[in-house]
Structure formats: structure tokens, C-alpha cells
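Supplementary Methods. Inverse-folding protocol.

Structures were first reduced to a C-alpha cell string of length 220. This string, shown here, constituted the complete conditioning input.
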């Protein structure tokens, strides 16, 4: 522990979790079906941004990076999000497609951890989603050179003005450097907080030649 803390952590900063057990028998045979159940409950509970998750990536040299993103779709194939392909995360995923995602639904004492790899979705799918976005966001995708250094805050405003002018009166096309990724899971863990840190962790991993899902429990 550092000698002088900026803020003292006390018993008040500790809490116990609720007592809703999550048994392996209650977990769906397919983890995406299970994810759908918990996601639906997160929506019903009116949690803020239940589709927000953190995504960890790593460069080829192993340097990790983590950031929050919005899930925009999930299917039996995986979890989709949209971003700038030239961003730090985009560069990482080009060098090293392995990644990990975490959904935290704290009010429900739950987290869902996903490990797998990310692939770009098809240009047609990215086009379809891009076309559904508000015009300001479409212009923003052209104007923001995401993750690169900006000299000052004016640069972005100037670029927004310039692309607004460029696409005046016409549909904004999707920038080639902007689109979706799908995270294809190889392992998914459902974590239910329990009293005294004796949490339930029900996990799934792909096994065998048919790559079917195996379900198992982990120690908390
Ligand atoms: C709640 C929330 C949702 C976000 N959703 C996205 C998103 O869907 N796509 C995206 O590119 N960035 C999103 N961001 C911004 C990212 O966290 C991050 O700053 C950005 O993608 C650049 O990350 P990178 O430099 O690691 O590539 C979101 C941030 C927050 C706080």
C-alpha cells in the first residue's frame, strides 16, 4: 500500500452482493441464449446503456489496451460493434485478432466475460448500419481520425465543417476506414455476485471437432 493515500478506503467502500444463485442447471445449453436472457433482464431493469462493454485488445508486442464500446448486435455468431478501423483498437486487431470483452451489469451483480477473436464484418453490413446512423455521426466518422494526435480542438471543428460542406445535399457514404467487427467467442463466463465473495461463475468453452459448447463451473 502507498504510504500516503489520496483517499482513505474504509469498510464503507465494501459491500456484499445479493443472494441470487446462478446454478449450472439453470444456465442455457448455448451461451448466446444465456447472454440473451441476461441482456433482456438488464434491459427490463432499465440499467443505463446495458449494451456498453469494455474491449481489451493487445498489440503484436503484447501491449494491452482497453476501452468502452457499444454493442450494436449479437447473434449465434458473435457480438458486433462499430468503430474506426485505423484506431488503436483497429490496429491491434489487425496485428492480433485475439480480444476479450466484459459486460458489467453492476445493479444486477452480474458480469459477462467473453474471450475470442474479432473479424471485420462485410462491407455491405457496415454500409447498412452506417446508413441508419444520424447524419452528424456519419460526418463525425469522416472528420475524426480516431486515436491519432489532434493539434487542438479546432481541428475537429474545421474537419466537421469541411465534410459537412462536401456532402451537402447528398447521402454521406461510409468511410472505408469505418465499419463493424464481430467478436467470435471461444469462451464465455457468466458471473453472478454472491455474499462473502462466494460468487457463481458458470463458463462455456468450445470443445471437440464439432466445436460444441462445454459448460462448467469455476471457483470464484
Ligand atoms: C459509453 C461509451 C460508448 C462508446 N462506444 C464506442 C463505440 O461504439 N465505438 C467506438 O469506436 N468508440 C466508442 N467509445 C469511445 C471508446 O471508448 C474509445 O475512446 C475510442 O473508440 C478510441 O479507442 P482506441 O483509441 O483504443 O481505439 C465509447 C465510449 C464510451 C464511454
Amino acid at each position: 500500500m502507498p504510504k500516503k493515500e489520496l483517499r482513505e478506503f474504509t469498510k464503507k467502500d465494501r459491500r456484499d452482493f445479493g443472494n441470487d444463485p446462478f446454478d449450472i442447471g439453470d444456465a442455457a445449453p448455448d451461451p448466446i441464449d444465456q447472454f440473451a436472457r441476461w441482456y433482456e433482464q438488464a434491459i427490463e431493469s432499465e440499467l443505463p446503456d446495458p449494451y456498453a462493454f469494455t474491449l481489451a485488445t493487445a498489440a503484436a508486442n503484447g501491449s494491452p489496451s482497453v476501452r468502452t464500446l457499444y454493442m450494436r448486435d449479437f447473434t449465434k455468431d458473435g457480438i458486433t460493434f462499430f468503430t474506426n478501423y485505423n484506431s488503436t483498437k483497429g490496429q491491434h486487431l489487425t496485428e492480433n485478432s485475439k480480444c476479450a470483452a466484459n459486460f458489467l451489469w453492476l445493479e444486477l451483480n452480474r458480469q459477462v466475460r467473453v474471450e475470442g477473436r474479432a473479424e471485420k464484418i462485410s462491407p455491405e453490413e457496415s454500409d447498412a448500419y452506417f446508413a441508419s446512423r444520424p447524419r452528424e455521426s456519419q460526418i463525425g466518422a469522416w472528420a475524426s481520425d480516431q486515436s491519432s494526435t489532434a493539434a487542438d480542438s479546432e481541428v475537429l471543428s474545421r474537419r466537421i465543417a469541411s465534410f459537412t460542406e462536401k456532402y451537402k445535399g447528398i447521402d454521406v457514404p461510409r468511410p472505408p476506414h469505418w465499419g463493424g467487427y464481430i467478436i467470435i467467442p471461444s469462451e464465455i463466463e457468466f458471473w453472478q455476485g454472491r455474499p462473502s465473495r462466494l460468487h457463481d461463475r458458470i463458463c462455456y468453452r468450445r470443445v471437440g471437432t464439432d466445436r460444441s459448447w462445454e459448460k462448467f463451473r469455476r471457483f470464484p
